[in-house]
Specification:
- The structure holds two protein chains of two kinds.
- Chain A is of the alpha+beta class.
- In chain A, 29% of the residues lie in helices and 24% in strands.
- In chain A, strands 11-12-9-19-16-17-18 form a seven-stranded mixed sheet, with helices on both faces. In chain A, strands 14, 15, 20, 21, 22 and 23 form a six-stranded mixed sheet that branches.
- Chain A is globular and about 80 Å long.
- Chain A starts with 9 loop residues before the first helix and ends in a 16-residue tail after the last helix.
- By secondary structure, chain B is α+β, with helices and mostly antiparallel strands.
- Chain B is 39% helix and 15% strand.
- Chain B has helices at residues 22-29, 81-93, 102-115, 121-128, 138-156; strands spanning 2-7, 10-15, 48-51, 54-57, 70-72.
- In chain B, strands 2-1-5-3-4 form a five-stranded mixed sheet, with helices on both faces.
- Classes of the chains: A alpha+beta, B alpha+beta.
- The complex binds FE2/S2 (inorganic) cluster (FES) (2 copies).
- One FE2/S2 (inorganic) cluster sits between chains B (96-102, 133-135, 137) and A (82, 369, 419).
Amino acid sequence: MRPMFAKRTRAEADAAPDALVSRRVFLKAGAAVGGGLLLHAVLPPAVRGAMAAPAEAGSLNAFIRIAPDNVVWIMSKNPEIGQGIKTMLPMVIAEELDADWSDVRITQAPLDQARFGRQFAGGSMATPLNYDPLRRVGAAGRQMLVTAAARQWGVPVAECTTGSGAVAHAKSGRSARYGELAAAAAKLPVPDLASVTLKDPKTFKIIGRRIPGVDNPKIVTGQPLFGIDVDVPGMLYAVFEKCPVFGGKLKSANIDALKALPGVRDAFIVRASEANPGGDPQGVADGVAIVATRWWLASKARAKLEATWDEGPVAAQSSAGFAAKAKELAKGEPDSYLRRDGDVTGTLKAAAHRVEASYAYPFLSHLDLEPQNCTAHFHDGKITFWAPTQNPGPGAKLVAATLGISERDITVNMTRVGGGFGRRLRNDFMAEAAWISKQVGAPVKLLWNRQDDMRHDFYRPAGFHFFRAGLDNDGKLIAFADHFVTVGRRGTPADSANMDPNEFPAQLVADLEYGQSVIGSGVPTGPMRAPRSNALGFAFQSFIDELAHHAGRDPVDFRLALLGEPRVLVNSTGRPNALRDFDTGRMAAVLRKVADVSGWRDRAALPPRSGKGVAFYFSHLGYFAEVVQASVAISGDVKIDHVWVVADVGSQIVNPSGAEQQVQGAALDGIGQALGQAVTIDRGRVVEANFDAVLPLRINQAPPVEVQFLATDHPPTGLGEPGLPPVIPALCNAIFAATGKRIRTLPIDAAMLKA
Amino acid sequence: MAFSIEVNHVKHTVDVDGDMPLLWVLRDELNLKGSKFGCGAGLCGACTVHLDGHAVRSCIMPISAVGNAAVATIEGMADHAVGKKLQAAWLELDVPQCGYCQAGQIMSATDLLGKNPHPTDADIDAAMAGNVCRCCSYTRIRAGIKKAALSRSTSAR
Ligand code: FES
Ligand code: FES
């Protein structure tokens, strides 16, 4: 049981920065209680914790367990939020193990980062972080099983083959199922992960196959799976009302009256000063908790709540105020410069054509269909959770701080999650449930209603861009400037409200500057599917389209000219980082391909008020180019006819079914945002409360989305996010092609598009 | 107050206020967690069930209004001639992403195919527009309905 470490390959080191991953894998093996082989693998940065952890064998936390009945149990370590991870990561292990997929059973791991490495669903990072290490884990298991068989039969290892969960020796005609070999394999040393033999991808039988989601049978029959479905004996139900104005403090509430209402077991005031003395933005806010025997009764009691609030300074803020302030700031110099190359002012003066345009996008709510909820049981100084979270580790930390207990006394069971989109990277609902359970001394299911969910989010930040650009007589882009006005505090952009100095077309235009000014805002913000990119893609790729138009060039050709020769533009730090370095060749390839498959060159044949628009965007290691075809009615209503997506996410799509879902979902998500979504701040609070005011995309609005992956020589990367950013500008550019009207503010205003 | 309701061919008596929505009776009194809460306002369809075979939003249907109508939920669809075809199609096409909306989608689709065995795209749009899929699995929902429609006609032949 000597721990082994796999070395990072060059390609892997390229795939993600050290801050995100260390590629050393720690593996140990043991015998299972009742026979069978256990493999524990730990993916750092938690290596040190793992080595200190006891090496007991019969633990439920084994990564892989091969049972005597041939069933291969695989732990799914990350939260499943609909991104398909619970199916996809086990496929990677099963492939290299050479198991039969029908023998594989998957269980959801609890939070235990000492054993499982980082457990989160975010950043489209699961594939780049886990693909190679999990292949090696599977291959090590296979090698142990083969070695066990070869020893039993007294034949050379090299003469043994595997397939469908069995080892065979052709010469002697012998074969054995993995279950029969598992006990013997458990006694063998763990092979060196760095040198285990990986399969030739051409021989893959599981990776690359369309494999349906492992929870689907439960989903379609309505069995309990989600956080909201959790039922714990003796459980009470809670609602929690917070100040509608962000940061407001409770003055008073009719607690005694609430306590007398039917079914109410307890009602009490929660003070942030006690539950969140550090003022963590994700921690507990002031409010009133009502705990009842049924959620419905708690909600009914809440309707009788009379609370008065000290709304505080944020009550003076509004979306309209932010927009006015942005305009005013745009007239002056930016607070600071993210990047300043060459002489923008001089070149603009001398340019043959100057183009100016301002773009704006609103705050957005995540709209997870399963409202935020969490079940918690505090007892004897310890707490157990059943939590639909994307990010259980920080959730446990937050709870430790909230309750003043050790993380060791916190157990987090991860439920399936009814939509994440980044909302559940923040764990405010865990802190609230923890505090309420501790107060009432019983297991409590806290459930928000839709209004809570929409009004207490960590919003995609609103932002404003004031662009200026210059073209020469040949239509070449020679100067480019953006004054980015964002929201934040004391000159620093809020969470996910920042912009990378390497934003395209940095380094492709010699005279280029990105200035930044920050408007003070108390609106909580956070990551939302393709954070930053989901908004920057719209602004930059729309303005680039304007430039193509002014240059009199085809929008695809203009972009290809801008990309130029294939090369990697290393980010401004000078230190290679695949997340931020831009490969112009990979982008040009997907752009050319999407022009091909979408019939881009034939678009002149489209009927009047129909048009095609194109855009590309690089995010989360993925290169995406998309074309949207849209038709605009005389009334101004926009109908999206078709979307084409071409993506380069490296050499291998693990599960084509899930991959296609992620890309289609991301593209349609973006279309929904563009058509009907904005969260409006007025007097420091959110105006919208439900799906009649913020409009999720519906089936009658959803066009077909055709997805193609270009396989390239790069390591496989993730798909949850990078499909989203290009679709919004592609749609807006299609609307321009159809109507000659430029969408510079989201969401799209149909009235503006009337014929 | 006591109400007796029939859910998936089983009779139950529940002692609740008459304004308690059917959704919460199903979920928290009868422990049938398949029907989901999304908006509580008839805007998302996650809570869709059948009342005498017709799709309704159970989050805005008070228990007092259910009367003698037979309630069917996703938990009963495995025994429903149309519902089980849709479930099979959903599995075959790998329709769900997060899966949260899918019970409601299948309930609405079952109602649609019961009334209209061969829906056009426009029929599907009209019948399914009340069911939000936040993950936007719409392409496959549409394909799933068509697949189930097809398998019905072949099995009838
Ligand atoms: S929960 Fe009933 S329609 Fe949304
Ligand atoms: S599958 Fe997630 S809401 Fe439909």
